[in-house]
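Cross-posting from the chemistry board since nobody answered there.

I work mostly on the small-molecule side, so proteins are not my area. We synthesized magnesium ion and want a rough idea of how it might sit in this target. Sequence and SMILES are below. Is it possible to get a predicted 3D structure of the two together?
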Amino acid sequence: MAKVELVHVCKSYNGKEDVIQDLSVSIEPGEFFVLVGPSGCGKSTILRMIAGLEAITSGELLIGGIKVNGMPPSERNLSMVFQNYALYPHLTVEQNITFGLHTKKISKQEQKKRCLEAAEMLGLTDFLKLKPRQLSGGQRQRVALARAIVTHAPICLMDEPLSNLDAKLRSKMRSEIRQLQRRLGITMIYVTHDQVEAMTMADRMMVLNEGRPQQIGAPLEIYNHPSNIFVASFIGAPPMNLAKAKVLESSLLFNSERVMRLHHHLPSSQQQVIVGVRPEHIRLADTGDEYFIAEVVNVEVLGTETLITFELTKTEHWIARWSGQWNVHVGEQVPLFIDETAFIFFHEDGQRLNHPVSSYVASGEERK
Amino acid sequence: MNTPLPVQPPASVQIRRKRTMRTTLEGITYLLPSLILFSIFLFYPMLRTMYLSVYLTDYQGNPVQFVGIENFVYLLKDVNFLQSVKATLLFVCYTVPTSVFLALCLALMANEKLKGIGLFRTCFSSTMGMSVAASSVIWMFMYNPSIGVINKVLSLFGISDVQWLLDPKIALVSVAISTIWMNTGFTFLILLGGLQNIDPSLYESARIAGVSYLYQLRKVTLPLLSPTLFFVTTVSLIHSFQTFGQIDILTKGGPMDATNVIVYSIYKDAFINYNFGSASAQAVILFFAILVVTFLQFKFGERKVHYQ
Ligand SMILES: Nc1ncnc2c1ncn2[C@@H]1O[C@H](COP(=O)(O)OP(=O)(O)OP(=O)(O)O)[C@@H](O)[C@H]1O
Ligand SMILES: [Mg+2]
């Protein structure tokens, strides 16, 4: 097990603009750390810098407390799983798995033993003599995993390893990888653009956008307390509902059309804010609730839940998520209720505003 | 499940047959232009050559008397022809392995990601853009014993007066060297293309595994390049058997028939001695020799090729 630390790391490919800007993060031994962000935000670049495949422009990279900026990849004692698996097409599965082990002074017997062990673990025993092209996508994926396991490296890097698989296999491999990591106790740095993968697999995750780290934390913490509107809209499906609003004494005014009265939780200092509400916090009003009426513009019944798109204002649509199957029709006027504690306020520039009673909100939401 | 297929009603069979006819005709129509060209310039001359090889001919190349395999029997006893065979085989052995190996080394170097590598790539492949005639003339000047640059340079090291094209011992080597130079461009370009086709993540994976350069070359690069290498070797081999231009310009088959390879000998027999029958017989022998070599290469060489 080894700790991986990045200290003020910057990366520039062409010497002009930075692809990665001032990234500092410390990844604990044995942790499952996920890098998540939209396409082109620099996730692969970070991973490749840690692997040593890409030079670091400035800043420091420490593995196990030792500065490794100039160290060649093979001496960093890590393994990597590539997006396209990078299997050697002319070698058998077994040769692929044991490729390069001889450089670590491992005897032929030990190589064989480790290979069988890994194959056993991943259910590849029957395929050891086949070539990669004779395997299915999921099996190839497992060969790539096996190759990472046999090195017994304490750190494993994965770059979108599941993106070539279909949805069903993906969720299966997700839990397999997670279990494997727990069993072996390795430090995992995992890149994905899929926020579901990030939420379900990570011990901690880092959300990236345009080369800048947006927020680092446990998945639920990020989900519940997004630090800016980018994180709020990137994490969660459907994303958090966001809308600009004016603060008028004790109410919010949306686009001078809709007013919502709040009693306690208004941000005090701001005139203009961006209001965010998770879809699951918008529910059908009970009697006695202070409800508002909105027109339904779309309904998606997904079996376990129903997504209801409604008109917040003429130009803005919000989504409510109700569990169960609801018989709501497009065009219907429904009374809706949002708990005051569910509102999250952002500054106009997108940063989260300090909520007066955020601790209360936190405990209230984590209960469920 | 094993019920026999119902017998097709005759009408539908006819329709289907008509349709197959139509598609066949359509296919032939598309092939027609190249079929015509091939027939005029390739198949007809080939058949004509085979036909002539069993005849004695007059000076215009008209068959006079059927002699069967006599032309061949005569050739196999003829010292000059056997010398041609020897020269050809030597020439192939000199040029093919060397030019493929040289081009491979250059391609491996040019495949590195370095600043200004494009310049080297252009240089290495530039001989492809030169005609055989032009480059032969250049080499002729360079080989010239009195004004040639090669002897000038050698004289700095105290070696003097090497008769590159006039000494029967080295004339074939000299022609081979110039041929290697001419072939390298094409071979290099194809091999470089093959190298660039290899997925870079395979190399990255090897870097993380930490294998040495030679191990990577042996276990990753060469196996993945093997289809390209196979292609290049086959083409070079055929090409080398058919060398004509540089021999005609540099040595005219001399000195003492040292560079009189089969193709040149065919040319001399046919168009200088007007002995078309014998020339045709040589051409037929060359054809079958190339056929057999290529066949053997496919049979034994292709086993080591990893198609992806
Ligand atoms: N070799 C390179 N040379 C120049 N620019 C590059 C190179 N590789 C990546 N970039 C740039 O760096 C930025 C980040 O790329 P990167 O591959 O890290 O994105 P990513 O987050 O992995 O995206 P994806 O999810 O699509 O894989 C992109 O804007 C890309 O154009
Ligand atoms: Mg990427």
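Reply from a structural biologist on the board:
Welcome over. Reading the output above for you: Chain A has two domains: 4-234, 246-366. Confidence is low (pLDDT under 50) at residues 356-368 of chain A. Happy to explain the token format if needed.
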